[in-house]
Write a structure and sequence with these properties.
- The structure is a single chain.
- The chain is mostly beta strands and about 170 residues long.
- The protein has a domain of about 110 residues: Thiol Ester Dehydrase, Chain A, CATH 3.10.129.10.
- It contains one helix and six strands.
- It is elongated.
Length: about 170
Amino acid sequence: MLDDNAAHCHRLAIMSDSTDSNVPAAPPSTSSSTTPGTLLSPETIGPRELVMRVMPMPADANGNGDIFGGWIMAQVDLAGSVLPARISRGRIATVAVNQFIFKQPVSVGDLLSFYAQVTRIGRTSITVHVEVFAERNPANPHVVKVTEANLTYVAIDREGKSRVFGQEA
């Protein structure tokens, strides 16, 4: 089965909880739709980008051998902050976790790929959708979506107060 826009990681077979096998898979874009020095606007919100890759280690696992959900949440927050930090050209802070879905457990040795896409830009805040895929089983590799989340970040000044994008931090 093909996952929605999840064809990546060396053309590996994609496994998903989706039942629609007719969904075409397209590799995520790693290019930005804006030129350096410009801020994104609602009309120029770009495609998702690979922003981080990490492999969880035994110290990140719980008593059942699965990776702690809190560890995954921390990694998603880091990955989700990459695009807002670039766009804001200054400090940002996580202001809300709007949605967080654990689709499948993560295991030690899974190679996790984090894709982020800006979904909304406001005056002082940016909402980002993050999808996490695990590349598993090196002997018979396949990729599964393990987590997805929506987070909102706010641009802040030196005193920690919200600021308008484009203003100095």
